[in-house]
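Figure 2 data, in text form.
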Amino acid sequence: MSTPYLQIKGLVKKFGDNTAVNAIDLDINQHEIFALLGSSGSGKSTLLRMLAGMETPSGGHIILDGQDITKLAPYDRPINMMFQSYALFPHMTVEQNIAFGLKQDKLPKEEINARVEEMLRLVQMLKYAKRKPHQLSGGQQQRVALARSLAKRPKLLLLDEPLGALDKKLRQQTQFELVNTLEKVGVTCIMVTHDQEEAMTMATRVAIMSDGELKQVGTPSDVYDYPNSRFTAEFIGETNIFEGKLVHKDDEHALIDCPELPAKVYTDQKFEADNGQTVWISIRPEDIDLHKEKPAHRDTHNWAKGVVKDIAYLGSFAIYHVQMPNGRIIKSQVPAPYWYTRNLTPPTWDEEVYLDWPENQPTPLTR
């Protein structure tokens, strides 16, 4: 088995009595685009700054391509960092901004010119080479900042909220451009973001951070479909969580009694727990079907009923907030064509509806 390209071993950062990063262990592969995702204060930016050399670790090691860089100064690390603000020099042209780091390294003029042209072509900014930052759009400035970061051919590229300065529509367009550019270059990249969509779209793997710790690491689909805790399930996307007791479990199925639901929950997802143990069930809104009448095949498990209290119409789908008799709200996400393809009138406010979900969707959680 090959050695990971970047190894983070027991990394700790303390500010007085406060532990910002708590004994993190993480391996990242070469050419990987890795996202650190967390809310404000989770420790993700502090971790990124330690990788860049801008913060000194209180403990642990950072090993990049076989070299321990924990104590190296930022300028001695084969690492570049792109900030949310892009930090372009306003008095320099696009090509001068890209060339800046290369000139600092005192590379030959011919090599600098060749690399600048290579980067301009890579980010499709060749015709803007003589412009200054204020003459560019936000998306174009982002490309210039990326080109400058890649020009020195770093072993590791760090992105701090790389698309945070862009409006939502431009951010969505730029996500794929950025990924395509990084994949063409083949650079190993770690990005920090609080934007779930950004992390799930761009990264090959995602780490969920909270309180200075890694709560879960995996592919975007694994983290979303198979959360390892209530925290991760609620942090990534929307979900409905119900507390219950494990009634029965065998190799194929489990039956959970959730007091807030009128019927038991039946799931075929695998997990470790004992009969009588407290467990939680996570059901995503898109996995809950909405009906105007009780489904004939539902009797003993996986259903509920209530009254429509709110409807959020979002174009391609609508989210129904259904209040059960006990006051608990369940969210169900229904595709826009669902009712019309069945020649049915969509339910409206204060109308009684039924909800059900298939056995392969409830995700059992033990913490």
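Caption note: The radius of gyration is 25 Å.
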